[in-house]
Write the structure tokens for this entry.
Amino acid sequence: MSWDLYLAEKAALVEAELDRLISQTAYPPVIHQAMRYSLLGGGKRLRPALALAASEAVAGEAHRVLPLACAIEFIHTYSLIHDDLPVMDNDDYRRGRLTLHRVYGEGMAVLAGDALLTEAFAILAETAGQWPDLQARYLEAMVRVARASGRQGMIGGQVVDLESEEKEFGAETLEYIHAHKTGALIQAAVWCGALIGGASRTQLAAMDVYGWHYGLAFQITDDILDVVGSRDEMGKDMGSDRRKQKATYPALYGVERSVDMAAREVEKAVAALEGWGPRADLLREAARSLVYRRR
Amino acid sequence: MSWDLYLAEKAALVEAELDRLISQTAYPPVIHQAMRYSLLGGGKRLRPALALAASEAVAGEAHRVLPLACAIEFIHTYSLIHDDLPVMDNDDYRRGRLTLHRVYGEGMAVLAGDALLTEAFAILAETAGQWPDLQARYLEAMVRVARASGRQGMIGGQVVDLESEEKEFGAETLEYIHAHKTGALIQAAVWCGALIGGASRTQLAAMDVYGWHYGLAFQITDDILDVVGSRDEMGKDMGSDRRKQKATYPALYGVERSVDMAAREVEKAVAALEGWGPRADLLREAARSLVYRRR
């Protein structure tokens, strides 16, 4: 199966599960509507798909990784909601629709983000209690997910990103932002997917390397698309990084060199899975597809 | 030991642990400074003390409940930071000092709140992995804490609170707001403290009843203090509930009747611990002290 087809198939699976997890009819209505607006707003479901593919690469069972995959998508969604707020990146569009705070107001957007983050850990903790043989692994995943998204992970990256706006920045700051703001949660999705799938410590070490390079390649191509992509394909305003004078790869190295750097990260990601045989083909293709990314 | 003395002693213990958990020198500096500004800003540490007292009531060991107690204080602190934001309650003072967003800006306040919430679950998950004999109980506590603070707990209460501003409200809406916005996390602190302390299911059921009534009594007295308290004692601007036309007990029932209602909730909390003997004296006194609350 091709990665594109796999991604589409798993996106449908995850979408159905997210829909089930946050009921339309729960009380209080408005917070659940707001959560659903962002959660079911047509994401690519890349992180869940990577978690599922990493689990498959170690012969794990999809249904036991699905709660982890959804929890990570909850966290990703909350981070987008809070990042889009006027007091942060101040974005009006996301995935081709108005951002949450433009529809439900800023207070509700803060609360919906908080609720999604909280729910992610509720799901992980409930799942850990459900399968005794997976309890220890789900607990370990919970620690990893919390660290990857917290003050020295994703939030740390966002903090340095905000601080670097309209300032001079170097290669080190840039890599810190990208590795933490986007990379950490992607890496955690891959690593935890393999962990829940039953990976050995050696396999987990390889997944960590793969996830690290994949995450960097993803964010570099994201930066490039903000320069060369079209609004229709991306579903948000382009060129916003430059307007905000964000620390990006194209800003520091130019587009051409950034493309080369992304390709090099992709190669390193693929190399991390050397000797894994065909069971890692999906992950390899997932990495290679970043080079041709259009959205 | 009197409850006041116990509270002061445990506040010092918790304060030292919070200080240790969020290091002054961690990177990125600003987010850690912001977290510490709010976390170490002189709270009463009521929820941690209740968790510790509930554990003692079932002969639990304090050092094994301390991580739970701190995690709950992290969550309480994050909720205050986000509630104080201009897009929510718009408060300038808290505990006698400027609110976090007035010092660090709104973007950083959103992120510091997010980081505290995330850290709470990191601590719980790490602790669960640390003591194998407590793993299942810590997992159960994690579910309870997440539910109590999430979309159908604390956040649900805040949502209905925001929606009820400047509107007619009835007794049912008022109880929903109070039980969820404040009550749920207090009840969870008591219940989880007893759970980690080794309580039986029968004991936990009693703790749930105690926590429910304690939580309501606490919030009713909080409403009353907003009307009759002084700025010096409370460390924040008084009368803000009325200015914002919040749904409060004094607004619906008047001060005098509200005092009676709080006293009745206190009686019910104490009654829940009938037959527990002297080991529950602290919790009984904690409830009774609410009637004479000055801050």
User: Anything to note?
Assistant: The mean pLDDT of chain A is 94. The first strand of chain A starts at residue 93 and ends at 94.
